[in-house]
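Key result, reporting period 2: structure in, sequence out.
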């Protein structure tokens, strides 16, 4: 199917309803039906179950339990670096934020203010900073981890549409990551200052969850919600789990100006693995790529 038709189909698809149905199916304890669905998925997307802590497909009671399966201990060693990849996935785009504009794909940009839900003061902290958009495909490990140490400051749920976030849609739907449903997690690093991780929802993504809150978007009522954490200290170390997607999506990260020099091996469309070196502070003597 030509890309233009795929994009048109995305516009007319009843995305909200489809996602709600998919979410119910993924959470259902369907016995043999669930096992068959998981086996089909493993074959269809060539999922490597040997990396899973539990490789027995028949033991998962729900599709969600399978999809958010943990990895074996030691499967993703954490590199010695200031910043590491928080996910298994592919690089959609990365680089320098042009004033407040982030590159989505050739011919498409979106603003940091739109991305974080309209908070101009928050977005201003990342003017001329660095960004990375990482896409998680269906076959990938779907837990998200910390790129560096951080103390949680705020979390913002921003309602939105539910376009697919695959590369074809990213090339064809303007403002994609700033119009889809998303969860904005704001951290403070003792070494690198503030940084943001934005979990972007998509078609069929039943929900997004964090380790400190659980499922964030359980009820889609169209309202922005915000949580602050001044009353309790939530500190996560580099490489620790911070959240998960219930089906594939994208994470967008923002870092302050002068904080990040990306790994030279990181380029758009390259695959990355959790824990590999994403980058270092400019004054650090980084190891070879």
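The corresponding designed sequence is given below.
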């Amino acid at each position: 199917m030509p890309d233009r038709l795929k994009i048109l189909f995305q516009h007319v698809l009843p995305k909200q309803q489809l996602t709600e149905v998919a979410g119910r199916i993924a959470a259902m304890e369907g016995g043999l039906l669930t096992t068959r669905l998981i086996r089909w998925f493993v074959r269809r997307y060539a999922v490597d179950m040997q990396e899973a802590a539990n490789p027995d497909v028949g033991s998962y009671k729900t599709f969600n339990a399978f999809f958010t399966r943990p990895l074996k201990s030691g499967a993703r060693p954490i590199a010695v670096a200031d910043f590491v990849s928080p996910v298994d996935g592919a690089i959609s785009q990365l680089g320098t934020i042009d004033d407040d504009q982030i590159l989505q794909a050739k011919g498409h940009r979106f603003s940091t203010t739109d991305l974080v839900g309209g908070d101009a003061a928050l977005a201003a902290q990342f003017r001329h900073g660095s960004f990375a958009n990482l896409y998680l495909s269906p076959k990938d490990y779907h837990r998200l981890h910390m790129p560096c140490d951080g103390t949680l400051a705020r979390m913002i749920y921003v309602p939105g549409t539910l376009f697919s976030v695959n590369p074809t849609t990213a090339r064809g739907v303007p403002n994609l990551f700033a119009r889809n449903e998303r969860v904005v997690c704001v951290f403070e690093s003792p070494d690198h200052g503030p940084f943001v991780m934005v979990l972007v929802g998509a078609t069929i993504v039943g929900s997004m969850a964090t380790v400190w809150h659980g499922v964030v978007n359980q009820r889609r009522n169209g309202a922005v919600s915000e949580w602050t954490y001044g009353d309790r200290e939530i500190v996560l170390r580099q490489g620790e789990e911070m959240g998960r997607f219930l089906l594939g999506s994208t994470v967008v990260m923002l870092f302050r100006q002068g904080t990040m020099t990306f790994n030279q091996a990181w380029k758009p469309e390259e695959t990355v693995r959790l824990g590999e070196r994403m980058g270092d502070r400019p004054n650090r003597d980084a190891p070879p790529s």
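The radius of gyration is 18 Å. The chain has a mean pLDDT of 88. This case is discussed further under Risks and Mitigation.
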